[in-house]
Amino acid sequence: MKKEDLIEFLRSTIESDAIVSRLYRLFHVEYGYSLNDLSEIIIYGVNNNYFSLENVDDEQIKYNKIDWRIDNIEQEVIMNEPEKYIGLLFGNNVEIPKEFLMFLQKIDN
Fold it and tell me: Residue 1 needs a FRET pair 20 to 30 A away by CA distance; which of 12, 28, 38, 54 works?
């Protein structure tokens, strides 16, 4: 994944802007990333407790599978410890957190 796209993706998980419909539209339709590649990042994040896949209206409802639909406004990817990453992703010298550097090489677009 391109550096600026990965930064945008990670920022969106902090800003409560990673609703599946938006991710689908922006990263799959507009930027051309495959749903498998996007799923890989999200599942990696969930499995390593960096992300939660939650219901938009009720954060107590968690999901273990992404429903990739352009109209899926029920699921959202949330960064679990945003304070760890805010300085890296929103500072003057923006950096990709080391935990996600592998996706610069794994997903080639």
Answer: 54
